[in-house]
Design brief:
alpha/beta; Glutaredoxin
């Protein structure tokens, strides 16, 4: 009788195991079919919605032109930008402030943050150029800058108009100093 029970239990395990495997394989087949349908729908949506390569390139070119126009406009309206000698030379009648800045400077960081917060408040015709105090050694020497939180106002030829060190690192104090 023990052998009969063992055979019945084994048969039940085989039958139930086979039914479970059958159910799982049907589930996998159903999942595969659903994934194929989803992939096909996504592919079709991408084809209809994705721009063609030429359209993308034209849009990128237009965006780059818009950025250039925006940069030119920003310089006319007032701006805060990274220093380059060309920006000084192209300033025209704008007032140019060279902000000698260092990341490690405890007075530079709050002034930098306050300028960024008040970008729209930079007066028309004022360009604030952020100069890296640590790397622009020749420029520091040219203007006699010995502190990293120094502001130098120059004309478009780079001639010194005024120089001061920031003791009150606020945007309002900076703007009040412009001649």
């Amino acid at each position: 009788m023990g052998t009969t029970r063992l055979i019945i239990i084994s048969a039940a395990v085989v039958i139930l195991g086979g039914a479970g495997w059958f159910a799982l394989s049907n589930q996998n087949a159903t999942n595969d079919a659903m994934m194929k349908e989803t992939d096909a729908a996504a592919q079709q949506a991408n084809e209809t919605m994705a721009p063609k390569a030429e359209e993308t390139m034209v849009k990128k070119d237009e965006a780059m032109m818009d950025k250039k126009d925006t940069a030119d406009t920003m310089m006319a309206k007032g701006s805060y930008e990274a220093y380059s000698p060309e920006k000084v030379a192209n300033a025209g009648d704008s007032k140019v402030l060279l902000f000698f800045h260092a990341e490690w400077c405890p007075l530079c960081r709050p002034l930098d943050a306050d300028i960024k917060t008040n970008l729209s408040g930079i007066p028309s015709g004022v360009i604030i150029l952020k100069v890296n105090y640590d790397t622009e050694i020749a420029l520091r020497q040219k203007y006699g800058v010995t502190y990293q939180h120094t502001i130098v106002e120059v004309d478009s030829k780079g001639a010194l108009i005024k120089k001061w060190s920031v003791s009150n690192p606020t945007f309002a104090a900076l703007i009040a100093e412009i001649k």
